[in-house]
Amino acid sequence: MRKILLLLLLFHALFQLRAQRINIPIETNQNALVLQTDKDNRLGIIYFGKKLSQTAEYLNIGKAYKYNDENAGIYNGVYTPSGTFNLAEPAFEILHADGNTSSDLKYINHQVVKIDENINQISILLKDPIYPVEVTLYFKTYAKQNVMEQWSVIKHQEKGTVTLKKYASANLYFVAKDYYLHHYHGGWAKEMKPEDTKLTAGIKTLDSKLGTRANLFQPPTFMLSFDRQATEDDGKVLLGTLAWSGNFKIDFEKDSYQNLRLIAGINPHASEYALAANEEFKTPSFIQTYSENGKGEASRNMHDWARKYRLLDGEGSRLTLLNNWEATYFNFDETKLTSLFKGAKDLGVDMFLLDDGWFANKYPRNSDAAGLGDWQENKKKLPNGIGYLVKEATKAGVKFGIWIEPEMVNPKSELYEKHLDWVIREPNRPEIYFRNQLPLDLSNPEVQNFVFGVLDDLFTKNPELAFIKWDCNAVVYNAHSMYLERMKKPQTQLYVDYVKGLYKILERIRAKYPKVPMMLCSGGGGRVDYEALKYFTEFWVSDNTDPLERIFMQWEYSYYYPVIAQCNHITDWSKVGIKFRTDVAMMGKMGYDIVVSKLDEKELEFSQNALKNYANLKETIWHGDMYRLVNPFENQMASVQFVNKNKDQSVVFNYLTENRYDLVSLLKGIKLSGLDTKKKYKIKEINLYPNSKSTINTEQIYSGEYLMTIGINPDISSRRTSVVLEINEVK
Question: Helix-strand-coil percent breakdown of the chain, rounded to 5?
């Protein structure tokens, strides 16, 4: 009898343990994502939103959601599988070694590792109860910045190779009245054109299948508002981005219960991946921040996180530069280039950047139709080599940087003739070119060595090189790898292995040259993401340098990337005055693409003074808090403010963006943000054109409270199309 009683007690204890649901709160200072196991030990999301002060109360959240329908519980899964009980879009799809396509994932355990006072990493192990397949979900929280990073690692111990058909980075679940998606489209010189969509039943997809220049038409960034559209300073909003430099897919599925599921990761299109036993597949990071105080706070969260934890040298400095591209294009020689060095010094920039056209001999790079892949100095243009230019630039008092595009090849090149097997191309189909070029196959370790060698050789021969502009101008057509074919690996791995190969190259570069500044370029912003920016200090926003267009582009980019990462150049793309062009470019990492000798006396004087003003304000612009005061998409002007962390310096950029009714002057003040209400401030207008006078009273002292409650009128008008105000604390 005693034995029977003990067995009954043991059975009861096991039943109670099974019935006890596991709660996993994943928190930042302000926000929480709460996971909970169900009766079958599957893990779901029961809460996403503002952090509760009493952690124990998360246990009660599940009671607020009634899952009576036999299908209801599947929708909130934290990593929904395919082929068993799930009726929604899966995050995970697999072909087992025996040909079975079903999967199920159940909670096994989780660990919380405190990396430091600000960062926790939570790992959650899920396993298939039938097949030896496991997925570990990782959540990395940055408490002060209210940013969460998540990814997954997949492995198995099956007797044979399994095929990953879909392998998302993130699978989130939201409950709200309505959902509003802010996303983007565009093309070359038309980046970051915003769209606002109220999500309806079904699936809305953001994706790319371009391979290399994956963001050309659509970037992997978005804002998602809950209940109603968030404004700059109000509303619930999630700001999200995928850190991956290749094909991506982000699905928003509004289900039959009016709840929303988000699945983000590598695009599974043509990307099934063979995984051997005990081999790990790590997905890219999905990065998100949530705010209940509008888009502005969410973006400042992301900026603080990026500068401290992701952008290379994000808390450091940047070089101002003069680029020769719009001054010379491909038509230059040593004499012409060295004459531009003096202009760089006269202007007052830190560096001269030599752009495309300096290389190749058998097929000289005199246009974009030849030479890519042959990375030797063109002897006719540069008989004394790059080293001579570096020395001459140093003599002139400026640093020297150089452009490369090492991932690409022209069919008219020696590299193409010698290594056709290194080129991504279908062997039995006509070649299709993008800008007269083809991508090299970075899945091939030999090609990885070659690409690393291009940059390594430049630095070995010219150790004083100060800067690299790394370009990528082609997409992938006719995707086929001779290397994968030779290794008997599936061609469907090419899109993924290309990007992995790129990261291997960049890791080697940064291991050997950790501090050299590098600009990420892809005919503009066609490639920017937070995995690439681990290796780059900045990115080229767009080949479109028209300052009016740039106001709108830079506005949208700034939600996701701090302006220290955004390269803004003064060029001759637009014929508006040098002041307007300069004022717009100053709102980030400033540079020039002009012929300095063609500036008249006043233009040169203005530019020199503007660079001095920039030097005084750059720390506030680069590392301060950004506030968008007047939205150019909704008004005739734009106004953007930066405030340093001590709140003793600020700068406000104001631009007239539309003048349909001959605007004479803005009739009301602009309320500032981010200042200390108790501090006193003075305001002065900077970047004034020679012999012009400001209408701003520079002697008036204002409290921070006044400036944020009443505001200041920048006196923007058709005669004053850009006004820059410097604000300093009166001590």
Answer: 25, 30, 45
Structure tokens at 608: 């020199």
Output the DSSP codes for 299-360.
Answer: HHHHHHHIIIIISTTTTS----EEESHHHHTT---HHHHHHHHHHHHHHT-SEEEE-S--B-
Q: At what angle do helices 445-461 and 385-396 cross, to 10 degrees?
A: 50
Sign of CA dihedral 4, 5, 11, 14: negative
> Of 161, 118, 168, 106, whose CA–CA distance to 138 is shortest?
168
Tell how far CA 398 is from the center of its chain: 30
Task: Quickly tell me which residue has 């979900």 as its tokens.
Answer: 137
Alpha-carbon distance values, 718 to 220, 574, 665, 714, 723 (Å): 37, 17, 8, 13, 11
Neighbours of 394 (CB within 10 A): 14
pLDDT tens-digit series, residues 316-334 = 999 999 999 988 999 999 9
User: Given pLDDT bands bounded at 50, 70 and 90, which one contains residue 75?
Assistant: confident
- Environment class of residue 98 by beta-carbon count within 10 Å: exposed (0-12), middle (13-18) or buried (19+)? exposed
Q: How far apart are CA 371 and CA 369, in angstroms?
A: 7
d(CA 620, CA 306): 16
Element (H, E) at 520: strand 518-520
Identify the three-state secondary structure at position 577: coil
Pair 186, 208: CB distance under 8 Å = no
How far apart, in whole angstroms, are the C-alpha atoms of residue 361 and residue 351?
27
Q: Which of 1-5, 310-314, 395-399, 707-711 has the lowest mean pLDDT?
A: 1-5
Domains of the chain, start order: 21-310 (2.70.98.60), 627-729 (2.60.40.1180)
Q: pTM for the full model?
A: 0.96
Q: In what order do the strands lie in the sheet with 680-686?
A: 625-630, 637-643, 649-656, 722-729, 680-686, 701-703
Question: In a 10 Å sphere around its CB, with 0-12 CB exposed, 13-18 middle and 19+ buried, how is residue 646 labelled?
Answer: exposed
User: E strands within 351-462?
Assistant: 351-354, 399-404, 408-409, 438-439
Residues found in the chain: 731
Report the C-alpha gap between 506 and 535 in whole angstroms.
Answer: 6
Which of 19-28, 558-567, 583-592, 644-653 bottoms out in mean pLDDT, i.e. has the lowest?
A: 19-28
